[in-house]
Amino acid sequence: MTNPSATSGQDVVDVLTADHREVEALFVQLESRQGTPEHRRQLADVMIAELVRHAVAEEMHVYPTARKALPDGDQIAEHEISEHADAERTMKELESVDPSDPRFDELLAHLTSTIRHHVKDEESDLFPRLRAAVAGEEMVELAEKVEATKKTAPTRPHPAAPDRPPANRLLNPGAGLVDRMRDALSGRATSVAELGEKQR
Asked: pTM for this one?
């Protein structure tokens, strides 16, 4: 989900909506239950990495903006962060379950349901309201911040990590560095592009 040219003229809603579509495509592949257990594990790892990066970027930049720009921004941000926390706990469990274990598909079903609900909320309510309340230039700047954050964000779930500024801004880059080192050492793919390379 880290496309260097993704923000040219796009605002944060465009970037986050593109992320949603990419994760949905991964969900559909996983739900088809096709491919080897190893392939399904790789798909799940990429999906988890994409979701974690996306959530971290929203928590660092989008929800603080919602708090300032919307009259009920605090309530919306807290609701969204709560949904992220639920998803992150599920991802943490999913990370260690073998795809041939029936629990894998149970956890996946819970996660996809949680995320699809979250995406629907954001796209039907939060995103249009942000576009209406925040200047276009600031929305484009937010897109750039989100893309930059995703490059250094963690790629693995850390349910106990802080999810609100300023603590998340201080700790996420360090956790991201450690995660990327672990990914490199283990050969874990964390993007659709990397997964494609592995399959060649």
From this structure: 0.89
